[in-house]
Structure formats: C-alpha cells, structure tokens
Amino acid sequence: MFYRTAQGSPLPRDPLTAIVSPRPIAWITTRGGDGRINLSPYSFFNAVAYTPPQVIVASIGNKADREIGKDTFAQASETGVLCINIAGYEDRDALNASSAPFPAAVDEAAHLGLELAECETIDCPRLAHAPAALECRLTRTLDLEGEANRLMIARIEAIHLRDDCLDGDGRFDVTRFRPLTRLGYSDFGAITEVFRMPRPKLPD
Fold first, then answer.
1. Which CATH class is domain 13-190?
2. Which residue(s) pair with 55 in the sheet?
3. Statement: the pTM of the whole predicted model exceeds 0.85
4. Dihedral over alpha carbons 159, 49, 148, 34 (to 10 degrees)
5. CA-CA distance, 15 to 163, in Å (whole number)?
6. What region holds the Flavin reductase like domain (predicted)?
7. What is the per-residue DSSP string for 84-129?
C-alpha cells in the first residue's frame, strides 16, 4: 500500500501513531498563575539532548475554556515551568482517566486521588509516587505547521528517581515499574523486557 498524506489515509483509521510507536508518555503536572493544578498525559514527547538535558512535548489542539492551547500548554506558557512524570503499569487507569477533557478549573490529581509533592527547583507539583519526575523550565515554544499544533522545548533542571527503581549497580531499571508507552489507536504498551547491545566500534 502507498498513499500521499496530503490526500488522507485510505484506511479506516490513520495509522501514523501505530507506525511511530511505541512513544514515551509525559504525564505532565503544571500549576497556573492562579494556583490551579493540571495533570495530563502527552505522547508526542521525547528527550532530545544531554548537555544541557532537554525534552520536547507537542501539544495538539485547543480547548474551549482556554485562550490558546490546552491546559498544560496554557499553564506552562504562563509560568515557564512544568514537571514531567513517568508512569508505570500500575498507573495505567489513572493516566488514561486524566486524559479526559476536564474543565480548566478541575485538578485531575485531586479528582483521581493522586498524591502530589512540591518540586525542588521550580514552582510546580509532581506526582509523589512517580518512578521518575523531571523538573523542567520551558525555554521555547514553536507554532508547528497545521492548526493548533505547538511544540514546547524545555530544559531539565532536576530529576527525582524512586529508590525502588534503582538496581544494585545504580542503574534506573525500567522493568521494576514497566513504563507505559503509547501505540496507535487506543493501544498502549508496557516495557517488561530489555536487552543490551554494545555500540559497535570500527575495526582496527
């Protein structure tokens, strides 16, 4: 099968997110200037640099009760900070529930009974139980091609790691919490098995 994207997919559902998968999920907490807290998952997310450590998150679409973008984008743009929490398999129901289109005034974490803790370097809450949390400072936003497609670029200021997710060698062991990943359609995955392949060297 071949098709040009400008003409639309001939399949019953667009396969793009099934093709580009699995994708990590940024479960983002923000606090607006009015003190209201938001929690929402984003799967157009990835790490893009080591020094300084940076991540990108794409926000797609608008919300009727926001002047621009959705709650996360609006609050992060206002305050300049956000916290990216990493979700494990045990979080699957709460993460999915937090993606509902709640009104801007709703605190999803409180609604779902999720405990929050304050970040150390930014004025923002994080999920207290998260296997990892990245305290981030927004450095740039970009309007992408297409209606209401926006990119956030952020620098990681500090990292929280849950102690039980570290092995005896000091490695962050993802199999201890089985990170959730986003696939296509309504599909999710969880990492349960890893393997190592050393980076090859050129022959002498």
1. mainly beta
2. 47, 154
3. yes
4. 30
5. 38
6. 20-174
7. EEEPBGGGHHHHHHTTS---TT--HHHHHT--EEE-SSSS-EEETT
If you search the block for the tokens 């099968």, which residue do you land on? 1
| E strands present in the chain | 23-24, 26-31, 37-42, 45-49, 54-60, 81-86, 116-118, 125-127, 132-143, 149-161, 180-182, 188-190
User: What is residue 82's DSSP assignment?
Assistant: E
Instruction: Give 136's strand partners.
Output: 82, 156
* Closest to 157 (Cα-Cα) out of 75, 80, 52, 57: 52
Domain ranges of the chain: 13-190
CA atoms of 202 and 137, how far apart (whole Å): 39
Task: Tell me how long the chain is.
Answer: 204
pLDDT digits (tens, 9 = 90+) for 98-144: 999 999 999 999 999 999 999 999 999 999 999 999 999 999 999 99
Residue 23's closest CA among 46, 41, 56?
Answer: 46
